[in-house]
Design brief:
6-stranded mixed beta sheet, 25 strands, Immunoglobulin-like, disordered C terminus
Length: about 400
């Protein structure tokens, strides 16, 4: 639930995330005219031949990847508790979608929800009319209606998609979306996608109930000095030095790894000594997670889908909507994968097992959480790969 305050009145994190890509796309399309200031006359419509030419320049494989997305009410099991929510299919997160750089994605949205919805392709650089922001790049898709998203997946990396309507993301409507690089420079034996989430739907009312309560103006307090304090749906006194102060405003009864709470943790398995690429996605609405794998250091290779100069970390601080890719060489045994809800004194939890031994307890706090904590601003982008420079050149020529 996005209740973070902003320096700008009326602007929330999701407003920025939701509108930023679309507005950026509008500016880029306006700039295709080559003039200094975009004007109404210089705007490019979706059916303009220049849009098609740019898409063709971005396509590298000539393949189409077709998928049907059917958001609908469903029930999921959270450690023995059945909750009603909305999801793409019968699980949270929805089934991972994986394509290759240069593939054309053809995604048919079939809306089986009792409310309008869209699909926003978070982190992807794509044509503006496919970005899924209602009222800005498309009309919301009404219940019982369909809409086909069609675009070239030009930038490889770890991404995800979700609606951009109301509080729908705060239910189970999100899916990891991986664009593989045919020229992948990394070498590894296994690959895992780890989706982190804060959860209340069906446990403590619905996201709409909580939003209504927050709008009543309960405010953000300072707590009693011994940690955050719950007042209804509001979490008061949640602070973090890593976040520069405020760590959120919403109380969540559960924190999830790949849709599983700590009481019924997901187990990742590999052989001892395996080199694993872990793709972390923070799908939470009001929680930054500090993530560590007990007994291991991590090598950060990507943030938000793009390569960075490799950096060693004991823990990662992953903000809402962010993605981190890391490489880890696994020891022999069973280890805790812990995502601390920053400032909220609760954790999401999973188990990494490469051998025998007892599974770690769900309340464990590995010492790595207090080691070298890396945030995105600590990292330096790698030089753009050749494919990206070539795509930019082709796109410029086509427009």
């Amino acid at each position: 639930m996005s209740a973070h305050r902003s320096r700008m009145p009326g602007i929330t994190r999701r407003t920025v995330v939701g509108g930023g890509v679309a507005l950026g796309g509008a500016v880029l399309l306006g700039a295709c005219s080559g003039q200094g200031e975009p004007t109404t006359a210089s705007l490019v419509s979706p059916d303009d031949p220049r849009v098609q030419a740019t898409e063709e320049a971005r396509s590298a494989t000539g393949r189409e990847h077709r998928v049907t997305l059917t958001p609908a009410p469903t029930e999921v099991d959270l450690a023995g508790t059945t909750v009603a929510t909305w999801a793409y299919g019968s699980s949270i997160p929805g089934e991972e979608v994986r394509v290759r750089r240069g593939d054309t994605v053809v995604a048919e949205l079939v809306n089986d929800l009792p409310a309008p919805t869209t699909v926003h392709w978070h982190g992807l650089a794509l044509r503006n009319d496919m970005d899924g922001v209602p009222g800005l790049t498309q009309d919301p898709v009404a219940p019982g209606e369909r809409f086909t998203y069609r675009f070239v997946a030009a930038n490889p990396g770890t991404h995800w998609f979700h609606p951009h309507v109301g509080t729908q993301l705060d239910r189970g409507l999100y899916v990891p979306f991986v664009v593989e690089d045919p020229d992948e420079p990394l070498s590894y034996d296994e690959e895992w996608v780890v989706a982190l989430d804060d959860w209340l739907d069906g446990v403590d009312g619905t996201p709409d109930d909580v939003l209504a309560e927050l709008r009543q103006g309960m405010g953000h307090g300072s707590g009693d000095g011994d940690g955050p304090m719950r007042m209804g749906a509001t979490l008061m006194g949640a602070t973090s030095d890593h976040l520069g102060g405020d760590a959120g405003d919403v109380y969540y009864p559960e924190y999830l790894v790949n849709g599983r709470p700590a009481g019924d943790p997901h187990t990742f398995e590999a052989a001892p000594g395996a080199r694993v690429r872990i793709r972390f996605v923070n799908a939470g609405g009001d929680t930054a997670f500090r993530v560590a794998l007990g007994g291991h250091a991590m090598t950060v290779t990507h943030t938000d889908g793009y390569p960075v100069e490799h950096a060693e970390a004991d823990a990662l601080l992953i903000g809402m909507g962010e993605r981190f890719d890391v490489l880890v060489t696994l020891e022999d045994g069973a280890f805790p994968l812990v995502a601390l809800a920053e400032g909220k004194d609760r954790t999401a939890f999973a188990v990494v097992r490469t051998g025998g031994g007892s599974a770690p307890e769900a309340d464990v706090r590995p010492e790595e959480l207090d080691g070298r904590v890396v945030v995105a601003t600590d990292l330096t982008a790698e030089e753009a790969p050749a494919w990206r420079r070539e795509t930019r050149t082709s796109s410029t020529r086509s427009t």
